[in-house]
What does this fold into?
Amino acid sequence: MSNIKLTVDTLDNFTKSAVINIGKNNGYVEAYIDKTMENSELHIYVYDSKGNVFDTHIIPVALLKRG
It folds into this structure.
């Protein structure tokens, strides 16, 4: 595996979303854990370079496994 630099910014919004850029002129991924419900969920949104959502995943945290 080559050396890579991963940068993540945290948005100053209600959910404190983490945002990962996908290349210089591409889109980005926004992720956050929604704890407002009884069972927490991981929300993942993939945006294109124009800021439009083109993929969404909502995964119950209870289904996530530790590596």
